[in-house]
């Protein structure tokens, strides 16, 4: 039985965002990556894309965070270029595979953690580089807003955020938000104006660069010296009694959740 049917039967009061996370968890339970034509046999990328190198300019001093890291397929080529790379995702299956791949390659600076799919769980000013590839198009707009807003705070002064978006421009199929009644890999597109607004709302300088006819990258640029605006994710955590995200990296082994 699919997530939506179970939810309707059990009368759950999960929000649309929580439902979307549950749907993705269900995709992993059915072997999402193993069955995917691009990821079959846990294929790993050989190198970071040129747009990433040009826009992020990774350095050996960088501490990077990938949101929606899957089994670490981008973390593996990035790890040798930076000081550390941390990945988060919403299901243990891809994360367990990531740990296995890191071990096989002796990548001790790459770690993965389980997240709740609504926020990263890390403290402000933890990373110099936050990025996400092929994820923003698969999650509801409200979760995207939360991640961008949180990323603005996760970055240290001078840090960069890179978020890969699917462009909606002129494509009728991509204008709708994720509809949880369809339990499959869905795509939601954004217009350039909508992407720009995300960064404005997060109060951080940004640029949007079109990298191909279907995709654009939102680059966040944390000022060297500027106060950070209020952020829903940290406010929520403080209210829940979890403090301001301090100690969020408690499990240094990278096994299990990081909070
Ligand atoms: C299409 S895959 C992309 C994986 C990888 N970034 C890549 O480019 O190959 C989308 C990934 O986003 C993750 N994901 C889905 N919803 C998420 C959420 N709310 N927060 C974080 N990751 C999420 C999925 O579990 C999956 O690993």
Word description of this protein:
By secondary structure, this protein is of the alpha/beta class. The chain has helices at about 5-10, 15-30, 30-35, 50-55, 75-80, 90-105, 140-155, 190-200, 230-240, and strands at about 65, 85-90, 110-115, 125-130, 155-165, 205-210, 215-220. The protein has a single domain (about 5-240), classed as Rossmann fold (3-Layer(aba) Sandwich), CATH 3.40.50. The protein is built from nine helices and seven strands. A seven-stranded mixed β-sheet has the order 3-2-1-4-5-7-6, with helices on both faces. Helix 7 (about 140-155) links the parallel strand 4 and strand 5. The radius of gyration is 18 Å and the shape is globular. The model is unreliable at about 240-255 (pLDDT under 50). The structure holds S-adenosylmethionine. S-adenosylmethionine (SAM) binds near residues 24, 67, 69, 117 and 135.
Radius of gyration: 18 Å
Q: How many domains would you count in the coordinates?
A: 1
Instruction: Determine the structural class based on helices, strands and strand pairing.
Output: alpha/beta
Characterize the largest beta sheet: strand count, sense, and whether it forms a barrel. 7 strands, mixed
Give the arrangement of secondary structure elements.
Layout: H1 3-10, H2 16-29, H3 32-35, H4 50-56, E1 63-67, H5 75-78, E2 84-89, H6 92-104, E3 110-114, E4 127-132, H7 141-154, E5 155-166, H8 192-202, E6 206-212, E7 215-221, H9 232-239
Parallel strand pairs: 1-2, 1-4, 2-3, 4-5
Antiparallel strand pairs: 5-7, 6-7
Helix pairs in contact: 7-8
Bound molecules: S-adenosylmethionine (SAM).
S-adenosylmethionine binds at residues 21, 24, 67-70, 73-74, 89-91, 94, 117, 133-135, 138-139, 143.
């Amino acid at each position: 039985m699919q997530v939506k049917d179970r939810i309707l039967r059990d009368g759950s009061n999960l929000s649309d965002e929580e439902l979307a996370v549950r749907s993705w968890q269900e995709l992993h339970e059915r072997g999402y990556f193993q069955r995917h034509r691009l990821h079959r046999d846990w294929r790993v990328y050989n190198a970071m894309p040129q747009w990433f190198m040009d826009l992020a300019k990774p350095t050996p001093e960088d501490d990077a965070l990938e949101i929606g890291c899957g089994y670490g397929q981008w973390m593996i080529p990035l790890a040798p270029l930076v000081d550390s790379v941390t990945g988060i995702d919403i299901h243990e299956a891809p994360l367990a595979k990531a740990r296995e791949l890191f071990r096989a390659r002796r990548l001790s600076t790459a770690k993965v953690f389980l997240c709740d799919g609504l926020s990263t769980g890390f403290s402000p000013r933890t990373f110099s580089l936050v990025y996400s590839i092929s994820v923003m198009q698969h999650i509801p707009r409200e979760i995207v807003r939360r991640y961008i807003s949180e990323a603005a705070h996760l970055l240290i002064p001078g840090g960069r955020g890179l978020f890969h978006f699917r462009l909606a421009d002129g494509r009728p199929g991509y204008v709708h938000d994720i509809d949880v009644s369809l339990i499959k890999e869905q795509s939601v597109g954004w217009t350039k104006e909508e992407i720009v607004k995300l960064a404005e709302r997060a109060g951080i300088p940004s640029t949007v660069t079109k990298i191909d006819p279907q995709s654009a990258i939102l680059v966040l640029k944390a000022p060297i010296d500027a106060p950070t605006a209020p952020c829903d994710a940290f406010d929520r955590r403080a209210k829940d009694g979890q403090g301001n995200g301090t100690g969020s990296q408690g499990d240094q082994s990278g096994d299990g959740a990081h909070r």
